[in-house]
Amino acid sequence: MSDLHTLHTLDGLGFAESLRWRGNELWFSDMFRGVVSAWNPDATSTVKLSHSDGGPEMPGGLGWTPDGDLLVVDCLKRLVLKLDQRETLSTYADLSTLTDYPLNDMHVDGDGTAWVGGYGFDPETETAVASAIYQISPTGNISSSSAHFVFPNGCERYGDSLAIAETFSDRISFINDEHHVVKTFECSAGSGPDGLSFDAQGRLYVAMAFKGQIERFTLSGDSQLLYTLEPDVNYPGRPKGIFDCAVRSENSTIAFSSACLDEEYAKVNNTGSITIASLH
Description:
By secondary structure, this protein is mostly beta strands. The protein is built from one helix and 26 strands.
């Protein structure tokens, strides 16, 4: 099913995550190609940071400081890097002593407070366990949340709470600034909530990675299936999932990324793409 009308598509990607609208450009991390890019749908995609130029081998969450400097999660080294407006790259925060597992997505508040999630376990070989989300203050102080989450992934603030996708527990949890869970939304079993995005009305759009779907939740938690990748398409490798989404309320559009669910195949084959669609 589909309630979306496709406007633009960017193909030939590895594994696009961390979709962020900034002005007229959609920024994203291609995690399996080691690049951070910005795509103007009416023009072209431009690489802003690459592994070959000193960036992360596997970039993750993106955000900006109040001064406009880019923050990028280095998933494998467990760092948050800063690329300032002079294009100088430096370590912004070192989280390597807090976890032995890769970092993942990140949200940056308007005041510069950053929230970073991580794997917490190896989903290929270990039983799922809950782990903290890490808070980095604008002055650089790092703390771990008292609440724990199973594979904290996409996260974004709306109002007084931060929504966190727990990919391997099929749940969205909301925490306040004191790290207390204030509510949860349950997702269908095996859906794998990944990236998420709020619209201006507070409705939450969630990429369900393992089912190749986008769901929309009201503030009270009622959900609507908004989009499903066509199941009968013979994608290379194996079926594709939807891993992130980013709503742009001013023109009622949504961007979402998809790639082959077989990550080993996606690492060596360009199965990834980003679609921008109308929400009308």
